[in-house]
Amino acid sequence: MLIRDFTAEDWPRVWPIVRDVVRARETFTYDPDMTPEQGRDTWVVGPSGRTVVAVEGERVLGTAHMQANRPGPGSHVSTASFMVAADARGRGVGTALCRFALEWARGQGYAGMQFNAVAESNRVAVELYRRLGFEVVGTVPGAFRHPELGRVGLHVMYCEF
Asked: How far is CA 3 from CA 20, 47, 98, 128, 152, in A?
């Protein structure tokens, strides 16, 4: 598996991953009715950030984007998001993407990385982030409507560098 910068030619292979993750309504707070254009505008970040893909040959296994969490006085803290194709889960793709994002953020001089909205029901991601140095610094109760579990909390997670 190789992690490399996203190119415009990748979007037709990234969109199905984004679409399927968002439409599942289990992990992301994005609009499940977003169009491919809205998805691209949401997922592909500008030049001060970075969007990458994890590939195996020509196949996109997953994708991530990373950037400053907030502008101005909050711009010293980074953030990142990750999506992995359903049939590539459990193969270390998410772990590799998260490690890549952390290395990028450290290299850019950020003081830490913050995740603003991790569904507490997404136990695989929560445990992965904990293994990589994140801690839950707060939880907004019932802030996420899970399709099967109903309202669950959204964790704010932080890793200080």
From this structure: 21, 18, 11, 18, 32
